[in-house]
Amino acid sequence: MTLDPAFQIFLSDCRTRVESALDHWLPSESTQPSRLHAAMRYAVLGDGKRVRPVLVYAAGQALAAEPDCLNGAACAVELIHAYSLAHDDLPAMDDDELRRGRPTCHMAYDEATAVLAGDALQTLAFRVLCEDDGLRVSAAERLRMIAALAQASGSRGMVGGQALDIFATGHDIDLAQLENLHIHKTGALILASVRLGVFAAGRADDDRIGQLERYAKCIGLAFQVHDDILDVEGETAVLGKTRGKDAAADKATYPALLGLQAARDMAQRLIDESLQSISDFGAGADPLRQLAGYIIGRKR
User: Fold this and answer.
1) Which partner from 5, 113, 132, 175 sits 20 to 30 angstroms from 35, CA to CA?
2) What are the structural domain ranges in the chain?
3) 255 Cβ neighbours under 8 A, 6+ residues apart
4) pLDDT digits (tens, 9 = 90+) for 225-279
5) Which three-class secondary structure state does DSSP give residue 27?
6) What is the pLDDT of residues 98-146, one digit of tens each?
7) How far is CA 191 from the centre of its chain?
């Protein structure tokens, strides 16, 4: 898809910022235990879309936050996302061999090291929120951010969604059950990304928070619907992961349940609803608006 030039600059700036923050917080490969630290860096750094960090920056900008105060929060959500991928790719989970166009963490290292790398990335995320000097918020607000990310990451969020996904594999589930699965597995961390941007900005009333949360819930579900479509229509070389894995594993997906066109229509309705939720925000929310279109226009 063709991106607005201003949005391209915004994306590039966000990715540069979060890459720098990630590189700063991740231990060097020369630090013992060096193999573990190398695996952590392998799992995080490289050719990622960085959608969740971009959401942190975009939500913060919508509330006139300075980018420097958002770096730690953006870094933390990406560390959680990277940990989840390292674990989800394991043979005991989704059993994937390709991620971001290269071997998955357990293929590049080994299964035990991938498990430990994911564990360490998860704990590092919370250390960042505890210690990052760039966060210009009170201790109470910092604790609120930690709680939001913890809830989104655990059994009430992403991990719970992965459990639901495992239990659903090979079984017939309805649309409501599939939506509940992905509200947890994918949507919870996307919602947390927006919340962390809002909390780091430190200047939103309840109405504004509600509007941004509605935006996040809609694009979180749209993101997953589009991912399911890409698993059917995309190309492995472009996706950076194996095409058709969902069907091969007999996973419940939106195209399988609704058909491809109905799945596309659903994704578009969700994007339209997300844009409506922030319609009365000013130009500062333009990156959020552009990001909504990017989510269902991307090829990987």
Assistant:
1) 132
2) 5-297
3) 228, 229, 231, 232, 263
4) 998 999 888 665 554 556 556 665 677 889 989 999 999 999 999 999 999 999 9
5) coil
6) 888 899 999 999 999 999 999 999 999 999 999 999 998 999 999 999 9
7) 9
Amino acid making up residue 200:
A
Structure-token pair, residue 94: 């989704």
Joined together, the tokens standing for residue 230 give 């890409």
Q: Kindly give, in sequence order, each residue whose CB lies less than 8 Å from that of residue 165, ignoring residues fewer than 6 positions away.
A: 181, 185, 251, 252
Residue 218 is encoded by which pair of tokens? 């809609």
Measure Cα distances from 141 to 64, 196, 268 in Å. 17, 10, 35
Compute the CA torsion angle 187, 189, 195, 201 (nearest 10 deg).
Answer: -140
5-297 folds as Farnesyl Diphosphate Synthase (1.10.600)
- Quick count: other Cβ atoms within 10 Å of Cβ 264? 18
- Provide the residue type at 158 as one letter: M
Tokens of 144: 């609120």
State pTM to two decimals: 0.92
CA atoms within 13 A on the CB side of 63: 26
What is the distance between the alpha carbons of residues 162 and 130, in angstroms, rounded to a whole number? 27
Structure tokens at 44: 């995080």
